[in-house]
Write a structure and sequence with these properties.
Distance between the termini: 56 Å
Oligomer: single chain
Strand order of the largest sheet: 1-8-7-6-5-4-3-2
CATH superfamily: Aldolase class I
Largest sheet: 8 strands, parallel
Number of helices: 15
CATH class: Alpha Beta
CATH topology: TIM Barrel
Order of helices and strands: HEHHEHHHEHEHEHEHHHEEHHH
Structural class: alpha/beta
Length: 376
């Protein structure tokens, strides 16, 4: 037993890995992490770009594809194969949990972040292409993405809602899930247990943005009163998100869905590696532990938690204090709505840039391969 096993068995939190690489699928690294307690995998365009650009394990397959596929279609073939292999590694966890865990996530193309119809079509296509019960298709929680989430849930498709940065948007995501389940039931589905969803609430990036604003407010005054608020916003907002989760997944409306087998949409803590070296390495893990949650960690943070993580329920500690802190930030001049909007735009742009850069790299590689073939 490891601390990752303890995290799930004692506190009800599922530790997932926020990374996916083909060499780890081939050499048993991912299977080894699952054996040590990892219960799911998340990926995003940046993670996949780093994997494909950073190793030669994709070259042989890519070489076989470029003659018959566009560069973008070849990319999706590479990704589909990795996701399918990871789903197989996690399948025993999915089966042992009765379908509650053991998921692998893949994201729709980032260019669709502001296109509801395009996102719906892409999510349907991914679910059709990778037809496995433990697949989660990731849809960003943009204003255009939230209606797509509802539509996918109403069709009985499992979704990871990503890039959530505010309590207000999180409330909209919960509503999309609940109303989607209600639409699915109204259409005649009497067993809702086959639909799974997580709501990926980003954590550390909130502190990075808020801290920068506090620093600017303090100016050159190292003793400025606002500086004591640094490094506290992200966990406080996460705890308030958990309070909202417990409120919305209770009462008559939820009980009617639960009677049909519906599963709660678990909050997933994303971006939980520490960005500021002055903060503890597990600042966003040890502080957000609790039932019906997921923490998806990059491999370095997984190693840190295995080495010295503390397993104790912390996600609902002093939520009144968390609310007061958010008020204090507002009073200090930090516009939290603008923080969320800034982070959402940056998140979408970052994934889009990673995707575009990778396609450019693959196009260059395809041209080189074509030149080599022609020379031969």
């Amino acid at each position: 037993m490891t601390t990752l096993h303890d995290l799930y068995e004692r506190e009800g939190q599922s530790p997932w890995l926020d990374n996916l690489r083909r060499d780890w699928l081939r050499d048993g690294t991912l299977a080894g992490l699952v054996g040590r307690g990892i219960r799911g995998v998340t990926s995003n365009p940046t993670i996949l770009a780093k994997a494909i650009e950073g190793q030669d394990t994709y070259d042989e397959q890519f070489r076989s594809l470029v003659g018959t596929h566009s560069v973008e279609d070849a990319y999706w073939e590479l990704v589909t194969d990795d996701i399918a292999a990871a789903l197989e590694v996690l399948r025993p966890v999915h089966e042992a949990s009765g379908g509650a865990d053991g998921f692998v996530s893949v994201e729709v193309a980032p260019a669709l972040a502001h296109d509801t119809g395009g996102t719906v079509a892409a999510a349907r296509a991914l679910h059709g292409r990778i037809d496995r019960p433990n697949l989660l298709v990731k849809i960003p929680a943009t204003p255009e993405g939230v209606p797509a989430v509802r539509q996918m849930i109403a069709e009985g498709r499992s979704i990871n809602v990503t890039l959530i940065f505010s309590l207000e948007r999180y409330g909209e995501v919960i509503e999309a899930y609940l109303s989607g389940l209600e639409a699915l039931a109204a259409a005649g589905t009497r067993d809702l247990s086959g639909v799974a969803s997580v709501a990926s609430f980003f954590i550390s990036r909130v502190d990075t943005e808020v801290d920068g604003r506090l620093d600017r407010l303090a100016g050159d005054d190292p003793g400025a009163s606002v500086l004591h608020l640094r490094g506290r916003a992200a966990v406080a907002q996460g705890r308030l998100a958990y309070r909202l989760f417990t409120e919305r997944f209770s009462g008559p409306r939820w009980e009617a869905l639960a009677a049909l087998g519906a599963r709660v949409q678990r909050p997933l803590w994303a971006s939980t590696s520490t960005k500021n070296p002055a903060y503890p390495d597990l600042a966003y893990v040890d502080t957000l532990i609790g039932p019906d949650t997921v923490n998806t960690m990059p491999d370095g943070t997984v190693a840190d938690f295995l080495d010295h993580g503390t397993v104790a329920r912390t996600v609902d500690v002093d939520t009144d204090g968390a609310a007061a802190l958010m008020d204090d930030l507002g009073a200090a001049g930090v516009d939290l709505a603008d923080v969320a909007a800034t982070l959402e735009a940056a998140g979408v742009a970052s994934f889009a840039a990673s995707f575009d850069d990778l396609l450019a790299t693959l196009a260059t590689k395809a041209a080189a391969l074509a030149g080599t073939s022609g020379a031969g």
